[in-house]
Write a structure and sequence with these properties.
6 strands; alpha/beta; six-stranded mixed sheet; about 220 residues; Rossmann fold; 5 helices; globular
Length: about 220
């Protein structure tokens, strides 16, 4: 049974002075801190290569912040950044808005609160988990094809789709409190995958850029 580890890397901090939920909006770039986070992750992966890891596949969501997060790692590992649309941010009705209590109380939004378990204001958790896990399964197969048993892949994505995929892989309930997600900026959710079947065998979590997190933005839509 050939095995691959697929690392779901959340992008770095975004320059977002207006504090909007940017979702899938284009041209939201990394902040200076976000760029430092991306470089920190590149150094982390380079060190792992020095210790014997084999990274053979690197892909990112089509959104600017994910592509910019992937770029230093691509240079450090000598890999091309491939674009994987299935790991894009979730659709959200509130995209482009500052999500304040006052904004949420406006009657034009009320119909989007009918089912918070789905959730009714955006893409269903099940749909997010399914597309991300399908991308993970394919990444595992590509990694083994290119590098053999044990080769690894990196997918640069976004908090909510990563979290939904993790919950699904661990057999947990998908509806959740967003404040309790374990998926900080430039964190790694690492899935060990059977490359033949796509089954997730185990999940690990780490924060290689933890030293950069204090004071980082926590605006949603990431």
């Amino acid at each position: 049974m050939p095995i691959s580890t697929v690392h779901l890397l959340r992008h770095g901090e975004v320059h977002n002075p207006a504090g909007v939920l940017y979702g899938r909006l284009p041209e939201f770039h990394l902040s200076e801190l976000g760029q430092e986070m991306a470089r920190c992750l590149a150094e982390h992966f380079a060190k792992r290569v020095h210790d014997g890891a084999r990274f053979v596949y690197l892909a990112a969501s089509p959104l600017t912040r994910a592509q910019e997060t992937a770029a230093p790692t691509a240079r450090a590992l000598g890999l091309e950044v491939e674009t994987e649309p299935r790991i894009i941010e979730a659709e959200n009705h509130f995209e482009g808005l500052r999500v304040t209590k006052r904004e949420l109380a406006h009657p034009r939004h009320w119909r989007y609160f009918t089912n918070p378990l789905r959730p009714s204001w955006g893409e269903a958790y099940e749909a997010q988990a399914a597309r991300v896990l399908a991308a993970v399964a394919d990444a595992a197969r590509v990694a083994v094809d290119r590098g053999g048993d044990g080769a690894e892949a990196i997918l640069v994505a976004h908090q909510l789709p990563i979290w939904a995929a993790r919950l699904k892989a661990e057999g947990r309930r998908l509806a959740h409190d967003p404040r309790r997600r374990e998926c900080t900026l430039t964190s790694l959710t690492s899935l060990t995958v059977d490359a033949e079947t796509g089954a997730v065998l185990s999940v690990a979590y780490s924060e290689p850029a933890a030293r950069l997190l204090p004071g980082a933005s926590t605006t949603p839509g990431a």
